[in-house]
Structures
1.
Amino acid sequence: MDFVVHLGDLIVRFLGSLYPFFRDINNFIGWLLPFLVSYRVIYVIIGLFFTRKFKSAKKKHKYGIVIAARNEETVIGNLIDSINKQDYPKELLDIFVVADNCTDKTAEIVRKKGCICYERFDSERKTKGFALEFLFNNIEKDYGIMSYEGYFVFDADNLLKQDYISKMNDAFDSGEKIITSYRNIKNIDENWITMSFAVHWLRSIRFNHRARSFLHLATNIQGTGYLFASEVVQNGWHYTSLTEDRGLTADAVSQGYRISYQDAAEFYDEQTPNYKVAYNQKLRWSKGLLINFKESGLKLFINIIFGRKYAKVKWSKEEQEERPWWKNFLIGIKDRFIMFDTFMHLLPTNVINLFRWILVVLILRSCYVYTTGATDIYFFAGGTYLAQILRYFFPITIQITPGFNAIWQTFLIGVWARLFFRMGLYIENIIVPWYILFLERKRIKKMPIRKIFINSLLWPIFDIVGRYTTYIALFKKVSWKPVPHNSKITIDDINKQQVFSK
């Protein structure tokens, strides 16, 4: 028994001796990660005032519209109707639908509405990405992928404003190869979950899309409502992970494409009001992010160093020779920054932060305090406003004496400090929905102040769930699960609501 105690003492003392070194590394990483993305403050400021404007197109381009649908008989007809009501030449649009493992009347409905429908039955490969792969393979076989200049991707629950395709055509005609658009929510006012999803998408627009597009950088695709040139899929669609949108984003940027944003093109989608469905969706996003970083992180990192040297889309020698050397130099820096920006977007910082917290704060610090003890540890520690206020009124400190008790005491203090820090952030984040909804008040459905107030109190849970599903996704096998859509709202209903609100 004495030997075991002695061995345990040696191990704990050894681990404790490592703490000062790893504490410095941990502090450096804790400073470095926020510093590397500090430029995003500029995005927020620019997004408050500016977004890119596109001139009216000189040419009407020919597009294929692709839709992956699984048991969407309730909503897909309304999407097709909104496409048919576009102020764009109908002869330049063909609608392709893959009825993916459907057991309802989805295929029958879209065929009656004049769409080209392919039915797919595959119980093993269930993701939307596999459905799109199947659809593009059939388009290539029957029509030729390159017979269209570009492709729109929509989900079955989407609805398009009447000028949506015209506005996207303006951006496409300007030379952009991949373009995303303004995402509005049909049922934003249904409950706190749908409002949280809406704030999430609208926050991306304000904090990312608007500024990146204005600065001619590359933003990211988010699930639906986007357009890309046919050359992107000339060799087929190969983005079949749980999050095909992030897979396309990462691969496209690593290949040298820039993803732009057209604020004037607006569509609507439906968000689930069900907590379990929302949780599964967040878990799928988290797992997809990890997979996409694994698949494309290295390519992006290499391009940060070498620019477009190993990318598919390169500047020709003629283009480089026509430009002065300093302009080529600046373009090279810009290309590297675009790769870096996308790399940081994919980097699973939550996982990195969790790992260093467990290793350094919980394990090594607890072993260190076993030998040295600790004095004057603030009970309300941290830099949040909540911590500062409580520390001012209740300057409670904790003293820990050396010994085995110090290990579990320090461990519990570490857990409490992290929970208290998250609690402080939770309270601070309550203001986010008010800020976002105020900025977008002219475009979104009006809601009573009381409902916004109540839903805002629950909004931080949305981000908390996203954080912890990332941890779960590290160890859990995640499969794709359909998100049911039940809204019978049509584009005519939305237009009437907007006229009434004015």
2.
Amino acid sequence: MKENELYDIDAWIAEYLSGELGPTMKGELEAWVNASEENRRYFLQREELWFSAVCGEELEKFGANKAFEAFRRRIKAAEAQPAVGQSRWRKALRYVAAVAVLCMVAHFSYRQGGQDLKDTLAWIEVEAPAGSQTRMRLPDSTLVVLNAGSRMVYAQDFGVESREVQLEGEGYFEVTRNERQPFRVSSENIALTVLGTKFNFRDYPQEDEVVVSLREGLVTLDNRIREEAPMALKPDERMVMDKCQGRMKRERMATDSYLKWMDGKLEFDGTPLDKVIQVLERSYDASIRLEEDSLAGLRLYGSFNRNEQGLSDILDILQATGKINYRLQKDSVIIIY
């Protein structure tokens, strides 16, 4: 939020908490809250004052108008704020009445509502869109590299009481060691716990396998599909889970080829064509489909670099093998015999 708008922050918060703030301004407010710990504390303080003023015993006793005045008095008592335009407060007062009705009809306590709103602003989401990669460091200095088409979510207070992230897709992690606070990565199917190590975690929703590959240290894996004993991995080992069977299987690795994706490398070693298509779609943000389903199991071999070769280059090379052909149809690529 711009500096010259800070005087109006309480009115923005009032509109947000009443559900009347538009999506654009809501995004601005959320960005302002996420900008610093001071802003976050300020918001949470105002949130508590708001709900205690408009939902609960004071609302039932005094009504919406008195409740709003109580909200203003509580703000003044908690911390002196710059004056806000009278028309803005009158507009916000109408929102208080609306919230009062919602509170009475829905029978929500202000604390539950407050928790829901805290949850709204309590998560940070990082994405690597199709055709790209994202590299970042978490607040504890842990390095994370997300592969194309991946998404990671973690709490704003990451590192305060716990270190947990939720992952959808593929990510490489170099975890900063902290023996007092384990690092945890969870997907829909697997939960991984480490103290400090280097590993690759792959769990795309559209794929039928989960693969966790360990480069250094030690990791512990918990099955979230079915009950079985936790699995501990050592360096140069990986866990492969078939999502249909739901069981973890340990395998030895001869090389670190699983990390080549970070350098833009795409390697297919007898990979079924339908799996090749998944990788190409994510890597190039493209739409590719098979003309005949019978082509799905065709196995292809090749090593490519998406930083140096375009999608058409790869398709031309695969076509030169004589196994497939392709044609362009509007914004899609059609694989044919």
